[in-house]
Amino acid sequence: MDDDDSSPLSLTIHHSGIPHTFDLPATATLHDLTTLLASALHIPIENQKLLISPKPGLQKPPFAATRLNALLPVDSPRLKITLLGTPAKDIAALNAQADETKRRAEARTAALAASAKQKSSVRRTASGIHTLSSSSNSYTFHRLLPLTHLPNPDRSLQFLARLRDDPGIRAAMAKHRFSVPTLTEMDPAEHTTSESRTLGLNRNKGEVIELRLRTDAYDGYRDYRTIRKTLCHELAHCVFSEHDRDFWDLTAQIEREVERADWKHGGRRLTEQDFYNPDDWEALREGGEMMDERGWTGGEFVLGGVRDDNGEGLDRREIMARAAEERMRKDREKNS
User: Fold this and answer.
1) Mean pLDDT of 33-55
2) Considering its fold, how many domains does the chain have in total?
């Protein structure tokens, strides 16, 4: 299309498996398109990513004021634009839930403090974890949060509940007095590059723990015991942020405690090796899987936020986005 062409542009944008068609003037830019998407689909510009196939690939904010008819192969039948992003109302709902959880925890703490005769019923341990009471029922994950913009969030919720209710995990959390407000799943597309994939994150010493539940293409779930071992690693970050000797000792201890309390396997460990000692850590990195960099500190946990700005692995992310979209399309056809 020539720059002098005054014919309007008609573009179809796919979001969560649903196509949306927009008409724009011939002079419209990439920034104009993202502004229109923010208005029409209520997805803030800073939360938007555009996967444009076959070229130019992944576009992230800040978006340039480049003419669309110069950037996109508008006449190509293979042109496909996929929008990745979470609507503002979903983000607001999540933040509102976090505020409500905090308010209830503070009210409960105040009530316990007023009625207790002991010196303190609510303690802050040396690890930085806040316990809600002296009851062992408080040492758990208080909220399970699947990602609703991914396929089959109900299955993810069941997976998270299985981890929360795992006898070994419950025993270890009670022993170490771990009380974690939120256990959620990790979006593989946000934590995968061409060189590595992150398996878990612990934010602010137990504020939120994220786990990679799904396969990279969203077409299934990873092995349960592997995910549970990742959870042992992230629980150790409730005490130690850095991967030092104290951290590895605590990780091995938690893993042993989880195995001993796992009644499904008779309280016996399946291996005599400690869980992810430093040598194992290096082997993981060589194999392309990283448990995590270290305990993540600072900022706020926001659903759908952009967490990886290194720009690598664009082809892989495009493949995963297509696979997720195809999965949702098949689910809709099955249920229709």
Assistant:
1) 90
2) 2
